[in-house]
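Reposting from the mailing list since nobody answered there.

I have sequence plus structure tokens for a pair of proteins and want to know whether others read the tokens the same way I do. The first protein:
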Amino acid sequence: MDEMNQVNLKTPDLLTVVPSPHIKSGVTTQKLMLDVIIALLPACLFGVYQFGAHAATLLIVGVASSVFFEWAFQRILGRRVSIKDLSAVVTGLLISMNLPSTVPFWLPIIGSFIAIVVVKQLFGGVGKNFLNPALAARIFLFLSWSDRMATFTVPRWVGNGVDAVAYATPLASLAENGTTGGATLMDMFLGKTGGCIGEMSALLLLAGGVYLIVRRVITWHIPVCYLGTVAVFALLLPASGAMFDLNTVLTQLLSGGLMLGAIFMATDYVTTPVTKWGRVIFGIGCGLITVLFRRFSSYPEGTSFAILVMNTLVWYIDRLTKPRVFGGAKHGK
């Protein structure tokens, strides 16, 4: 005992009391955002291939304006400039990927201002916003310029030399007349259809999602529960009226911005639950609201609205699914 006391007296620095976190990791926001950018690049490049130079310019303008607004706002307020964390780059990419290739260059600039300044920085910056910035910007643009946000051009694989701008996407055709406008399931899976710049190829978006799961940037809970809920309700409440129609289910999954939203935007760290069961509830809620929008509203998409609605409920979901402290009382006691 005397020897132990002597050791403790001679080496008091063996026990150090410091504030949390007590477990540190080499994972940084920059590394996480870089992985997200890598996962998004295939879909971005495919959109450029389908729609040409204008689509490429929209992507560049969206990224550049997002980075600029974040830098300028932080400099004006005397905050630490955080553009090196790449979160603004991801926001700019997602904004542009959710735009039709026909929109003018000023539209992603306005979207970037709404996302970065209004939704993100006014609430304190990265990690403090309660809505997904890119989705909030998309909804603002859609409500303000719905005609421009709903005008699509014929992509390269479909055009066959035809110069058409008012092109109905498979999801819009499904809502209007119950058909996909001639697009097959394989067309939608590969991306041989019209749509926003980054939403067309389910194959490339799924590949990006697998990459993020393997890299442990996201977990499977939200995407699987989101897509699974849409599949179940599309099976039970099909727009065509024929229940248990597998083609209708696959059409709902492969069309519109569902894959892009479920994999890349519904999984945003800041605006989604932190617990596993919370993510399950979040994904199911997103899927249910998406189906209700697509089935009963005049708006054929629903993905963006669904995720934003669930963003506002994250605090309650986290409270509901908060694990019990070891040795503490159960909830409600």
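The second protein, same order (residues first, tokens after):
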Amino acid sequence: MQTRTAFCHLTDMFFLCGMKPILTITGSDSTGGSGIQADIKTISELGEYAVTVITSITVQTTLGILDFYDVPSEVVGGQIEAVMNDLQPQVIKIGMVRTTETLNVIVECLEKYKPRYVILDTVTQSSRGDTIIDETMALSIKKVLAPLCDVVVDNVNGNTHGQSCWFSSSLACYLNQGLSLDVAKTKADAYVKMMMARCDSPKGRCGELYEDFLSELQKHYRHASDVHFYAECLNVSSRYLAQVTKRVSGKSPKNIIDELLIREIEIQLKSTDYNVQEVAYMFGFSSQAHFTKFFKKQKGVSPSEYRRLLRL
């Protein structure tokens, strides 16, 4: 209770001293490496106070974005109105804007409240190559929002997760401290270099999980070819497992499973006298017809034809 009370007093003193908060309008990154979370960390680290408006919620891992939920534009507008009416930030940083409706709401608010500085971090794709907005939306932002901004940051300026957030948020801080735009940009560049050297972004267990997947596959491939089975073994979702295998090998989990299965089936057809039905049951197929369909899809010929061609 004492800690909470002390924090409230500190916040009251902050506003009584006449300092203005910085408003960041952007999406949420569930890994904490970019988006609203990175903005708050940067702004706080540089001694400023962040207030926020969330435009989108991402379903995200350290490997990339799985899905988006765009906050309804009226809710985005409500957030902006509440913050601007009450706290009157004079420096605004804008990041992820994915819908035309939200774009229009932001433009209306900028025209209404006329903050001193607006920084636009053009979030078109993530550092991992995920597409965030399409070309049409990017052009709309360039046409209607960019002209209202003092600085436009191209977020394709590096491969480090959160790099453009570090620059745009630190730039907002230095402008909020009364520095000129040129000096603020120089200091923001230096801040990004410091963060790059620190590089303390969280690392996922990509490589470890991939090796565990291969290990489980070796144990169970004769009777299990379903991706969900292996995801359950590893206690992860099928979507996350797919992210991992795609990042490490460029292949889906199903591709990897099928490649191992067909390789082992070929060995049996080449080196043993088991008939096709026996090989089918050996590898967990419910019927010879199902086995033949799978094999033909992978190799272009039936198991019997494959064996016949080997003997020519």
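Reply #1 (J.P.):
I read it the same way you do. The two ends are 84 Å apart (CA to CA).
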